[in-house]
Write a structure and sequence with these properties.
single chain; two-stranded antiparallel sheet; 52% helix
Length: 73
Protein backbone atom coordinates (compact mmCIF):
# COMPACT_ATOMS: atom_id res chain seq x y z
CA UNK A 1 0.00 0.00 0.00
CA UNK A 2 2.99 2.31 -0.30
CA UNK A 3 1.73 3.88 -3.51
CA UNK A 4 -1.70 4.65 -2.03
CA UNK A 5 -0.10 6.31 1.00
CA UNK A 6 2.03 8.49 -1.29
CA UNK A 7 -1.09 9.44 -3.28
CA UNK A 8 -2.93 10.26 -0.04
CA UNK A 9 -0.25 12.78 0.91
CA UNK A 10 -0.32 14.30 -2.59
CA UNK A 11 -4.12 14.59 -2.45
CA UNK A 12 -3.98 16.28 0.96
CA UNK A 13 -1.50 18.84 -0.39
CA UNK A 14 -3.59 19.46 -3.51
CA UNK A 15 -6.79 19.91 -1.51
CA UNK A 16 -5.02 22.30 0.90
CA UNK A 17 -4.14 24.56 -2.02
CA UNK A 18 -7.41 24.18 -3.95
CA UNK A 19 -10.50 24.49 -1.77
CA UNK A 20 -13.12 24.63 -4.53
CA UNK A 21 -13.65 20.85 -4.45
CA UNK A 22 -12.15 18.42 -6.96
CA UNK A 23 -13.47 15.29 -8.66
CA UNK A 24 -11.72 11.94 -8.79
CA UNK A 25 -10.81 12.65 -12.42
CA UNK A 26 -9.22 16.01 -11.57
CA UNK A 27 -7.29 14.55 -8.64
CA UNK A 28 -6.18 11.62 -10.79
CA UNK A 29 -4.77 13.99 -13.41
CA UNK A 30 -3.00 16.14 -10.80
CA UNK A 31 -1.41 13.14 -9.05
CA UNK A 32 -0.66 11.37 -12.35
CA UNK A 33 -2.21 8.14 -11.09
CA UNK A 34 -5.11 5.99 -12.26
CA UNK A 35 -8.65 6.82 -11.20
CA UNK A 36 -8.77 3.51 -9.31
CA UNK A 37 -5.70 4.37 -7.20
CA UNK A 38 -7.08 7.85 -6.61
CA UNK A 39 -10.46 6.43 -5.58
CA UNK A 40 -8.77 4.04 -3.14
CA UNK A 41 -6.84 6.92 -1.57
CA UNK A 42 -10.02 8.99 -1.29
CA UNK A 43 -11.91 6.10 0.33
CA UNK A 44 -9.14 5.82 2.91
CA UNK A 45 -9.25 9.57 3.58
CA UNK A 46 -13.04 9.42 3.88
CA UNK A 47 -12.78 6.54 6.35
CA UNK A 48 -10.32 8.57 8.44
CA UNK A 49 -12.73 11.51 8.39
CA UNK A 50 -10.12 13.71 6.73
CA UNK A 51 -12.27 14.85 3.79
CA UNK A 52 -15.79 16.01 3.04
CA UNK A 53 -17.63 14.89 -0.07
CA UNK A 54 -20.33 16.90 -1.78
CA UNK A 55 -22.45 15.16 -4.40
CA UNK A 56 -23.73 17.30 -7.26
CA UNK A 57 -25.62 15.28 -9.86
CA UNK A 58 -23.37 12.35 -10.68
CA UNK A 59 -20.18 14.14 -9.57
CA UNK A 60 -18.51 13.92 -6.18
CA UNK A 61 -16.49 16.93 -5.10
CA UNK A 62 -13.82 16.28 -2.48
CA UNK A 63 -12.74 18.84 0.14
CA UNK A 64 -10.14 18.62 2.88
CA UNK A 65 -11.66 19.14 6.32
CA UNK A 66 -10.18 22.24 7.89
CA UNK A 67 -9.64 22.59 11.60
CA UNK A 68 -10.29 18.92 12.26
CA UNK A 69 -9.53 18.12 15.88
CA UNK A 70 -8.51 14.73 17.21
CA UNK A 71 -10.88 13.40 19.84
CA UNK A 72 -9.35 11.68 22.83
CA UNK A 73 -11.09 8.85 24.20
Amino acid sequence: MGKVNKVIEEIKNILKRDNRGLTIQELSEKTKTSRITTAMALMKLEGEGAINIRIIGNCKLHYLKIGREKKNG
